[in-house]
Please model this.
Amino acid sequence: MGKKYIDVKKIKRRILLEKITKVLVVLFVAVIPSIPIWLMYLGLIAQAFSSKVTVGIIPSGFTLKNWRFLWSTIQMGLKKYPNIWPITMNSLYLALGTALLVTFVAGLAGYALSRMEFRGRTKMMEFILALHAFPSIVLLIALFVLLNKLGLYGKGFITLTGVMITKAALEAPMGAWIMKGFFDSIPWDIEWAALVDGCNRLTAWRKVILPLVLPGFAAVAVFAFLAGWAEFIMAFTFIREDRWWPLSVMIYHVIGEYKFIDWGFLAALSLFYALPTIIFFIFSQKFLLRIYVGGVKG
Amino acid sequence: MVSVKLNKVSKYFGKVKAVDEVTLYIKDGEFVTLLGPSGCGKTTTLLMIAGIYKPTRGRIYFDDIDVTDIPPKDRNVGMVFQSYALYPHMTVYNNIAFPLKLKKLPKNEIDRKVREVARLLKIDHLLDRKPSQLSGGQQQRVALARALVKEPDVLLLDEPLSNLDALLRVYMRAELKRLQKTLGITAIYVTHDQIEALSMSDRIVVMNEGRIQQIGTPDEIYSKPANTFVASFIGTPPMNLIPCRVTSGKALECPGFKYVFEDEIAEKILKEHNEIYLGIRPEDVLITSKEDSDTEAVILVVEPIGKDLVVTLQLGDEQTIKFLTPSSTKMNPGDKVYLKFRRDRIHLFDKETGRRMEYIIKVGEKE
Ligand SMILES: Nc1ncnc2c1ncn2[C@@H]1O[C@H](COP(=O)(O)OP(=O)(O)O)[C@@H](O)[C@H]1O
Ligand SMILES: [Mg+2]
Model:
């Protein structure tokens, strides 16, 4: 009996060691590298809300002065910039429109790619992936020529809409892929059960399939929105009048005013621009995690 | 309730003939089982009856109405899928209520019917749960409740018990059968489990590679298999098929022994064949004395299965056969035994076509 004695202490020590190693690994891989990033954000916030900042991040004196662009015109030297709110509306229009278009197209395309047998389906899927690999900057010149020929270059609202449609077209393929994955995870049986239970194709879609892929739609919509919100290069190239700029282009121009650097103001403006991203990620994380667990099994 | 008729129904997926010229008549209120190995086209047949798949060729009738082009929702069938296919985003209550809501029944009537069928299936305490919070057996009952709640004319069941544990499966066999008889519903049941089929069905349809092999009562299927496929698919263990050559008029040359028939009928039947299978079920092989025996064999493996032993024997040089004997029998691997085949239980099949030869039926009917 004595020989089969298990050294509990030794095992406990080993488990403890493993735990410590784990913590150390996480610390070195995830925490330490992200410190500079967090410092930058902290600095940004500090800059935006204080009258004076030392060493980049230590604030002193709370002020909202840097946020004055929210209620007054931005003026730098002699140059006046358009009011922030119409510009924000432009960005919102661009982002929401992109989200709407992408969600719509990706939903239909994803369903077709997942559920329907048609000739060249695999080829098409490969093509879609390849399409997504092209950065939009590659298309810039071609698009420029095209818009010019069509007389759409620098046409204010129409051009902004054009940028939105182009952005949506670039984002839609990946959205379709994501949606395909979500549709793939719904077994045929569930769709068939709905048909036997008395649905037609449309009601089966609305009452059974849609609720199950809603998290997918949310993900695609959020990503498309953020892509639209972040869109810069096309808007910068094609939109001439400053009142049709989205926020990204305006920030670029304001930063470009090197003679009148106002760090506090720039920080506030950047924070303002980052707001939807922050909000959306907080909101969508919760939503995405609510994917039905265990119910649908492939 | 309706009768169901399939007239030369085929379904091709590209080049794959999933179902091939199936003709079948199911009486009103009958419990018919489609039995066959995995991939033989059972599910496809069921889905065509439900209206999910459209047959490539052939027509389907409910009573005298041609339903081939009618969509599933207008056929009034209930179906239990192998995966149960419960709606994961709905509670059990809403799963069961779903078909009724689509029929736009008044709320209180829906409620009454859902609770009634839930009580019938003993799931009334689970109504507020989500499917993911249920055990396999419970999910299966919910799927059944959802299929029954709309009082379908035909109930389609696709291997509903295959995901349950053995004990529950035996219990649910009886339960399902009882339910079907009480409700008087026409039921088409799909399974690959021959014991399920034999124990539950009014009639069995044995399928293989998309084709019907035999249609008959469990007794007919068991005692008069139409071909070697049915013979070797039914029974635990299945029928022994011993390849033999017809030598003279009524003598067979089999691995390790000669078998001689005494009657004239055998002679007449055997005359037209060269190579045949002699079929004998394990329970129809008897141990006997040397003088009375048909052949001798060497014991290879002995497997106890409770009340009986399954004994594998070596016959001649290569052939093995199995036989059943009560577990009290002394059986040692390596020993030699003398065997006799019950004469009235011998089946003969043509080797080339696999088809049953008429011999057994004649002898069987004389008794
Ligand atoms: N949607 C489909 N596309 C292509 N082949 C299919 C499809 N459904 C079934 N099959 C083929 O048809 C045959 C019969 O399938 P199935 O009816 O599911 O068999 P069972 O239910 O008897 O196991 C199989 O060979 C299967 O691979
Ligand atoms: Mg199947």
